[in-house]
Amino acid sequence: MLQKLTIKNYAIIDHLEVDFSGNLNVITGETGAGKSIVLGALSLILGERADPGMLLDKASKCVIEGIFKVKKSQVAAFFQEHELDMEDQLIIRREISTAGKSRAFVNDTPVNLGQLTELSQSLVDLHQQFDTQDLENSDFQREVLDALVNQPTVMQQYQQQYQRYAQVQRELKQLQNQRDSANKELDYNKFLLDELSDAAFGANEIEDLDAELKVLSHAEEIRNTLSRVYFQLNEDEQPILQQLKQILSSVQALASYHKDAPAVAERLQSAYVELQDISSEIGRMNDQVQFDGARIEHVNERVSLGYKLLKKHAVHSTAELLAIQEQLNNSIEGVLNLDDRLASLETELETLRAALQKLAETITAARLKVAEPFEKKVNELLAQVGMPNARLKASIMQGALNPNGQDTIEFLFDANKSGQFAPIRKVASGGELSRLMLCIKSLVAKSVALPTLIFDEIDTGISGEAARQVSFIMEDMAKAHQIICITHQPQIAGKADAHYFVYKDARDGKVHTNVRLLTREERINKIAQMLSGEKPTAAALENARELVK
């Protein structure tokens, strides 16, 4: 329940505070006085987007604050989900800065616009003139029946299972497309894999074979060179090693004469040992190099095959070639495993479909059960509000499973008891839609937990007895809900528990909107003016007193 609304620096409102009754609150005033501006400000704390151009004083921020009295159970899930502190009193504040930036707070904790909208859906139903378009919407029509069914647990269970069902459908479709695409490449990938598997290259084999081939191809030249060097080191007329040994002996003989001779001798000794080792290595290399025609042919074939595959796959090393082989193997295995995954998903999909079908049939049965009483009650109310020949029919057609069951729901309307029903959007006028929406909401209100219902000129296009009957409906709704209603009908104003008058006054050369709660005598006078004009007659005043009673 909205207890208090405070508006600062919004449109033509400087500073306004309104304390609301918990039952039927009526707001009246001349056209253009600012009644809808008050609701516009209220809509900001319910999550509507802010317009920086609505600031009255561009140098000051705009602040809209609403104080709500709520049952903790009503909003507990929201506060728990968003980790907010819950108190007995709920304060929602919206601020619009001079720069146009908007901020929202719930009990002084910042929240985003999405969170604010989510919270407001548990607090207030705001019905404006253009909202009658919702009545033409199939989703709204379904929500009306579901509100009357009032089985949220079943619907929640269905929707959770449907989400999984839709997810499995998407996964299945994706895998089927993946399989179809992969099957097109499977044969070619198998050919590539067989080619690499038959080649059976080991790690770094192509590079090693290429180096071996160079040695084998120049074996004679290598042996000749190594033999000559080995001969020069060890077997020539004056072998290099023997000459170095003699030089070493000569320098060692100088050790007693020159202080640097031992160091030089030591270095020569090291060079002699190193050269001996080189000589042995050259001998070993020479022994290993053998010309082998058969080996050359084999290595040459392997290297040629290796380079052919490298070029084919646009890579440069054996390691890259082996990586491609591994990728091809994984890809083929993955394709072969797709069938198992597809079979598993198909089984799960069928199980989900069967469970959903069962739940959908339960939901359909519940909707069919409430549809006839709903039609009967709406038609009775339509007669009550001046449409005795109008008829509403709720058409429920079963079809494919969808996020809300298996039903296509459409409200059909016959304005003249002709027996020719057609979709509301095609045949109902604006005035008919307004009264029809009121009748429907008065029924739905009994089944939903919304504490506050707001109507902005829902009585447009009616008068006389129809307006009187609408006032009875409003009065009845106000027994269980807080109603805030902007109206031009004296019959409705007469039923108010609290009557607020919106007016303009001029201060400091500026026009401002104000609201005041009327006393009983002021109410009688304003209602009399609504009946007969600015200067009400005695009869109008007497009529107004009757309405106020």
UniProtKB/TrEMBL annotation:
UniProt name for this protein: DNA repair protein RecN
Family, similarity comment: Belongs to the RecN family.
GO terms assigned for molecular function: ATP binding
Keywords of the record: ATP-binding, Coiled coil, DNA damage, DNA repair, Nucleotide-binding
Stored InterPro entries: DNA_recomb/repair_RecN, P-loop_NTPase, RecF/RecN/SMC_N
Matching Pfam families: SMC_N
Domain of life: Bacteria
Range of residues in the leader sequence: none
Coiled coil stretches, renumbered: 155-185, 335-369
Function in brief: May be involved in recombinational repair of damaged DNA.
GO process terms (BP): DNA recombination; DNA repair; SOS response
Entry annotated with the keyword Coiled coil: yes
Record's GO cellular component terms: bacterial nucleoid
Annotated PANTHER family: DNA REPAIR PROTEIN RECN
Domain RecF/RecN/SMC N-terminal as annotated: residue spans: 2-505
